[in-house]
Design a protein that fits this description.
InterPro entries: HotDog_dom_sf, MaoC-like_dom, NodN-like. This protein is an alpha+beta fold. It is built from six helices and eight strands. The protein is elongated.
Amino acid sequence: MPKEISLADVKDLVGSEVGVSDWITVDQAMIDAFAKATLDDQFIHTDPERARNESPFGGTIAHGFLTLSLLSAMNYSALPKIREQTMGINYGFDKLHFVAPVKSGARIRGHFTLAEARFRGGAMLMNTYDVTVEIEDEKKPALTARWTTISQFNPEDRPEDV
């Protein structure tokens, strides 16, 4: 996949895997920082010894919402930049499922398939991705989701044939 594409190229990518992100290590420091930022310090996330002894996970796990929030970083490393885009906006998620826990120290990466791309108004392209976050050396993914984003662009850059 090229690192950069034009607005006119996007429609040809529907149905294709358009990117696989770099690996991200989800370590205890990241989990602790997320817990502090979100005020969610449940022991299964922040107390390694207690989580090892009292949880079914054998240690601490990342918050599901931490994994979800890392999709932005995965997006940046995986998806081709749309040349004409002036701004990207999160629109929302459908069918979001936290399938398997991400244990502290695990590496994860995102797989992005462009499910739909449609122009909206004169200066927006809505992109819908089927996303899977893989956990290295695990059979089940951390999460699956359908994610819609908006690529904002100048109206004069809109392709003629859409």
